[in-house]
Specification:
Chain B: It comes from Prauserella endophytica. The complex is a heterodimer of chains A (about 475) and B (about 500). By secondary structure, chain A is mainly alpha-helical. Chain A has 21 helices and 7 strands. In chain A, helix 20 links the parallel strand 6 and strand 7. By secondary structure, chain B is an alpha+beta fold. In chain B, strands 12, 13, 14, 15, 18, 19, 20 and 21 form an 8-stranded antiparallel sheet that branches. Classes of the chains: A mainly alpha (about 475), B alpha+beta (about 500).
Chain lengths: ~475, ~500
């Protein structure tokens, strides 16, 4: 069993234990917890006054109670050690240097809620400051030393997501996330081309990127095209489709592809995420789909962790990450890279591949197979502290932090004297490209490079 | 002085004027609660008592100076905080006030490869700094267990210990000079004499050592010039196993007195530590039952030095019957020395039942000759508390060579205790404080110091600072009074309030 299979199995089993992807209970119903007042404002009144907390009072509302019960043990593991190894790898904290934004604070806040010191309102802003990259989890000494034995890790990403779900439930969600998710709900895809004015978003354009490629609909295997790729960086799905075709991999597209629902889940809109997931699974089922090729790492996480948690055993699809597949095609000689690419490049480990899913060898194998390319690598562990800032809804709510994270990433690349930064995550490529323009370093997707080296005229565009 | 209730909007407005940046003056409950504690066991039931009133995130020395002057004018407590990873509450506000969080002062200002110095802000972490330095073939070798999270400002504040101290020195040896904002707001440079990059001087008083380990009670560090040493070409670690503690203890001394210049440190695990690792640390590779104690040693340097020294170490380590653990475990365990900082997060109650626990660590400096007797007394105290209260577990002791470049004399003796923090109430918190006091008293009685590297800043230790300092306590109080006339700098620590009683209050 490969590591990825183990991860998938673990994600499935999580379906029976986690409360995270469940729709959060409504606050308006009867309070069924004996001895607890149905006060959904936490320890203090909603007017935010600072009067002393009476710890003898049942201070938690029903939603908070469920939240702290679910996360108490995980939070205690951090609170009681509190070493903060996570701080220096956290891409957001590296920029803001604000202790409120550290993963440690995300866990301490759980204890603060539990003890009646803090309300959800008090901590809401803290949890916006996270890209859900998972660097804190892999760097946590509790994961490294104790977790090795139990195959367990400190869970911070799930805590952030559960807190955001609680914010949505309590109407404390952020304004820009609200707009983004409302538009996603209306369009059925993310408004990646902008949230104002007449953008050519929507289902009518969802397959525009494939113009002239004559890709069939449905079939045993489908390629799931992320919103950013479908509408913005269309060179990525075009390169992917043409590589697969050249290597003789049969695949189709969905009948009606909606957003995967992952970003909604990341920002706490759990109900919406589940609704979108339901649509997509039903669409796959109708077309007899068995296998999904995820061309984007966020989608891959969502399909291998959230979908199985939402649907349990019903979710029996095979999910393939494009990087693994392309590495295999090159290894097996099914895809020949013939055209030299005379560039000096380094590789950006996308967080969701490296830190979340442990996929770091395949992309390096691919880059080393490209003729002419001088590859200056930075190891995956050093890259635990790297990020583009493009995930977890951060660029929507805090674009200035995303931009600074990307600027620093390019600064690291500059030190290597490269003229090309290669990523494998289309969501990272927009902020990285903007920073690359400043740094004089081009940013490309690994699949675009593979296509070029395979002699394919890709077409599409890499920026607006 | 209690201002918690009275610190009003005017202070916040004036701080905002000084900082002049959105989000640099924080008053939210979350901002304050998250800066009330450090990793040491904490009286969660009294969390509210340790809150700062306001948090500031300055970027410049000038801002820090103006903030301190404001605190002085208003006679408001002011507490510096760097990483907040100390183990003795140095950065925990005892009386509210302004908390100066220096994490934004994390720049590498100058790398001087000619004079081998690097100048940094106090908010930078050593591992991060060393990543900057790597391309230059040099390293700043301050290497505590908290290497990945401690910040330079806190290392100076506590006068920390490096696990490579026998080879390269500790924080006080590796920090050449630093800039300090005094409790009245003046900015001074302290080092050896006047030059920022001078390592040895006979001009004036040795003020660097006065401010090193200031624990926030004498000001705020705003910049530091640090030593750069050539990156070691190779390292070597060996672990030796023993059937009894005494032989391991004597072997420790043989290794410490080997005279090898590349010796980075020697370590000792006592039988209680081996027991604990065996019973509760899943990451520990279990050794045979006859193993009762472990002695470990590491070397760093050039190949021409380390390779022959390795043979000396192997010979000395085995000379009294120690058995070598094997290359893989030795190098692996040594490499994991920072991540080892994490404890298993569980221990046992007196009936052997597994319970979730936090880690507490005592850190006395003890003359080598006294170590067996101190350990005997410490474990007896620990046993008594474990019997009497349900929240304690004895996790055994480590010993490390304590002095820079002179590893043969005194020892950092560390007893680790598990604490059931979740069950902490006032009754058990007071028991913890009294346990600490008893342990510290033993260290003093045996000619040691109660803290080698964390600081005597928390309840249980703080009361004994005058005892340990003896007649020099009067000098210490006079210095504190002279530099901090209004007792605004981190008040309530180390019994320093005494400097302002007995008719001394200004």
């Amino acid at each position: 069993m490969s590591d990825k299979q183990v991860t998938q199995a673990a994600a499935r089993s999580e379906a029976t234990t986690t409360t995270d992807p469940e729709p959060t209970p409504s606050t308006s119903g009867d309070d069924t917890t004996p001895g607890r007042a149905p006060d959904d404002h936490g320890p203090r009144g909603s007017n935010g006054d600072d009067r002393a907390v009476d710890l003898a009072m049942p201070h938690l509302g029903q939603i908070e109670q469920a939240f702290v019960e679910r996360w108490h043990e995980n939070a205690t593991g951090c609170f009681s050690s509190g070493h903060k190894f996570c701080r220096e790898v956290c891409p957001v904290t590296q920029v803001t240097r604000n202790e409120n934004h550290t993963p440690t604070a995300f866990h301490a806040n759980v204890i603060g809620l539990e003890k009646g010191h803090l309300s959800v309102e008090d901590v809401a802003d803290d949890y916006v400051h996270c890209t859900q990259c998972g660097g804190c989890e892999v760097r946590c000494p509790n994961t490294l030393m104790v977790g090795d034995f139990y195959r367990a890790r400190t869970e911070t990403v799930k805590v952030v997501r559960a807190m955001r779900a609680m914010l949505v439930d309590k109407g404390l969600d952020r304004e820009k996330w609200k707009v983004w998710n409302r538009l996603t709900d209306e369009l059925k895809n993310e408004p990646v081309l902008g949230v104002e004015g007449e953008q050519p978003n929507g289902q009518a354009q969802v397959r525009d990127w494939a113009a002239g490629l004559d890709i069939p609909i449905g079939g045993d295997t489908i390629m799931f095209v992320d919103c950013e790729a479908a509408y913005y960086r269309t060179s990525v799905p075009r390169a992917t489709a043409q590589i697969l075709r050249k290597a003789g991999v049969e695949f189709g597209l969905m009948n009606e592809q909606w957003c995967c629902g992952g970003p909604a889940a990341e920002m706490g809109y759990v109900e919406q995420s589940m609704r979108f997931a339901r649509h997509n699974v039903d669409d796959w089922r109708r077309s007899g789909v068995k296998r999904i090729i995820a061309i984007e790492p966020h989608d891959y996480v969502h399909f291998t962790e959230d979908y199985p948690a939402y649907f349990g055993d019903e979710f029996d699809f095979e999910v393939v990450q494009i990087i693994d597949l392309v590495a295999e095609l090159i290894r097996d000689g099914r895809l020949e890279l013939v055209k030299p690419i005379e560039r000096v490049a380094t590789y950006h480990d996308p967080c969701r591949l490296n830190k979340r899913k442990g996929i770091h060898e395949a992309p390096r194998e691919i880059l080393r197979a490209i003729p002419g390319l001088e590859f200056r690598d930075v190891d995956r562990v050093t890259q635990w502290s790297y990020c583009s800032g493009g995930g977890g809804g951060l660029p929507i709510e805090k674009p200035e932090i995303t931009a600074e994270i990307s600027r620093r990433r390019l600064e690291k690349a500059s030190e290597l004297d490269v003229d090309l930064l290669v990523s494998a995550c289309v969501w990272s490529e927009r902020p990285l490209t903007a920073a690359g323009d400043e740094a004089g370093i081009e940013v490309r997707d690994i699949i675009e490079l593979v296509a070029e080296s395979a002699g394919i005229e890709v077409g599409g565009r890499t920026r607006a | 002085m209690t201002v918690t209730a009275s610190l009003g909007n005017e202070v916040v407005d004036r701080l905002n004027e000084i900082l002049d940046e959105p989000g640099a003056v924080l008053t939210s409950r979350s901002s304050r609660f998250n800066r009330a504690r450090v990793p040491a066991p904490f009286p969660v039931h009294r969390w509210e008592e340790f809150l700062p009133d306001v948090v500031v995130l300055p970027r410049t020395t000038e801002q820090v100076s103006r903030i301190v002057k404001l605190a002085n004018e208003l006679k408001v407590p002011i507490v510096p905080r760097a990483g907040g990873t100390g183990l003795a509450d140095g950065a925990v506000p005892m009386r509210g006030g302004i908390l100066v969080d220096v994490k934004r002062m994390d720049q590498v200002k100058e790398i001087d490869l000619v004079n081998n110095t690097v100048t940094v802000g106090p908010g930078i972490n050593m591992q991060t700094l060393n990543r900057h330095l790597r391309p230059h073939g040099v390293i700043y070798p301050d290497d505590p267990a908290s290497y990945a999270c401690a910040l330079v400002g806190g290392r100076i504040g506590t006068s920390g210990l490096s696990l490579l101290g026998a080879r390269y020195g500790h924080t006080r040896d590796l920090v050449i000079s630093f800039e300090m904002v005094l409790p009245t707001g003046e900015v001074i440079e302290v080092g050896d004499g006047g030059g920022r990059k001078v390592r040895k001087s006979s001009t004036g008083y040795q003020l660097k050592h006065l401010f090193m380990g200031h624990q926030g009670t004498l000001g705020i560090v705003t910049e530091a010039t640090l030593e750069l040493v050539p990156r070691a070409e190779t390292e070597f670690a060996a672990f030796f196993l023993f059937e009894d503690y005494d032989t391991a203890y004597r072997t420790f001394s043989k290794l410490a007195k080997s005279g090898l210049a590349t010796l980075a440190g020697v370590m000792l695990f006592d039988p209680e530590k081996v027991d604990y690792l065996r019973r509760d640390d899943e990451a520990y590779i279990v050794q045979p039952a006859w193993v009762k104690a472990v002695c470990a040693v590491s070397l760093l340097g050039t190949r021409v030095e380390v390779e022959p020294a390795r043979d000396v170490v192997m010979k000395l380590g085995r000379s009294l019957g120690g058995r070598y653990i094997g290359d893989e475990i030795a190098s692996g365990d040594w490499a994991a020395r920072h991540d080892r900082y994490a404890n298993p997060l569980h221990g046992r109650d007196k009936n052997g039942k597994v319970i979730p626990m936090s880690w507490h660590c005592e850190d006395a400096a003890i003359p080598y000759s006294e170590v067996p007797e101190v350990l005997r007394k410490w474990h007896a105290i620990a046993r008594r508390y474990c019997e009497q209260y349900e929240i304690f577990d004895d996790w055994g002791a480590f010993a490390y060579t304590n002095a820079a470049h002179k590893p043969w004399g005194d020892i950092l003796l560390e007893i680790d205790m598990g604490l059931w923090e979740d069950r902490m109430d006032e009754y058990s918190w007071q028991a913890f404080v009294s346990l600490k006091k008893e342990i510290a008293q033993v260290a003093i009685d045996h000619g040691g110091s109660m803290s080698s590297c964390h600081g005597a800043t928390r309840a249980g230790d703080a009361e004994l600072v005058p005892t340990e300092m003896g007649a020099s306590w009067e000098v210490m109080k006079a210095i504190k009074r002279a530099l901090d006339p209004h007792n605004i700098m981190n008040p309530g620590k180390q019994s320093l309030d005494e400097a302002y009683s007995d008719g001394h209050r200004s």
